[in-house]
Amino acid sequence: MAAKPCKKFVPNGKLKVRVRASLRTRAKKNQFLVFALALTLETDFVPTTILELQAWMDGGSISLICKNDLEQAFKIHFVQHAIWKIHRESELPGRVYLNSKLVSKRSELEIGILQNLDQAKFQQTNFGDKELLQEKMDYIRSDEYFRSPEIRPVSPPQYFRQKEISSQEEEHLKSKVYDLRMNPREWMARNGHRIISGDPRIFQLQDKEFEKWINVAFDALLYEGLNVLWYEFLNPEEIEHLKAEIDGL
């Protein structure tokens, strides 16, 4: 029985060219799929099913995991509009994203997305999902949204994500230092007075959801301040208790 010929050796240079070409082909395919989806949402009513609504603890963002009767899968993201001071890598407050791409304000695509969601059905719903989605859609249709300023994200401080951290140290932060079950702004309202120095945003965190939680918490402390957070999340007795605790530090 004849032996099978060996695979021909490909020099690294040629291999890199092939990989780049493959990546370019994949990127073009993804761009075409996004274009086809956008065209469908702009021009045709194709019944959409909302598979899942994800609510983020960042001030009010939600994500809709969807599919339509053409078997197109997509994600629609409504960004919170409670916090307007953001960093360059953040999504723009109050805006709509389709598959992570910013949708132009009052564009045919944005109108088509809202009209499509008007008729969309939830595969299953949790308590408050429909009301939460309706609230976001009402905002996008409002004059407040139309008049909202075009935000220019500020560059993050140079010390951001400069220090490596082990998985064990990161897990310690997640399980012992911060309570990720809590809204990050509320956590900061209740615990920010104990932060004397240090900023965990210096670390290169592996868990991106944890990184997002940390960014929201410390942005709230930096841009809003404890007094604002106290009066949003705490009752008068809790505020007086924290003030007394601060006096004793």
Strand and helix layout:
Blueprint: H1 12-43, E1 48-55, E2 62-68, E3 73-78, E4 96-98, E5 101-102, H2 108-119, E6 121-122, H3 129-140, H4 143-147, H5 167-177, H6 184-191, H7 208-224, H8 226-233, H9 236-247
Parallel strand pairs: 1-6
Antiparallel strand pairs: 1-2, 2-3, 3-4, 4-5
Helix pairs in contact: 1-2, 6-7, 6-8
Give the amount of beta strand, in percent.
Answer: 5-15%
How helix-rich are the residues, as a percent range? 40-55%
Mean pLDDT across all residues, rounded?
78
The structure class reads alpha+beta
**Largest sheet, spatial ordering of strands:** 5-4-3-2-1-6
The total count of helices amounts to: 9
Description:
The protein is of the alpha+beta class. 47% of the residues lie in helices and 11% in strands. It is built from 9 helices and 6 strands; from the N terminus they run H-E-E-E-E-E-H-E-H-H-H-H-H-H-H. A hairpin with a 6-residue loop joins strand 1 and strand 2. It is elongated, with a radius of gyration of 23 Å.
Question: Which key features would you list for this structure?
Answer:
elongated; disordered N terminus; 249 residues; 6-stranded mixed sheet; 11% strand
Give a summary of the structure in a few sentences.
With 249 residues, this protein is an alpha+beta fold. It is built from nine helices and six strands; from the N terminus they run αβββββαβααααααα.
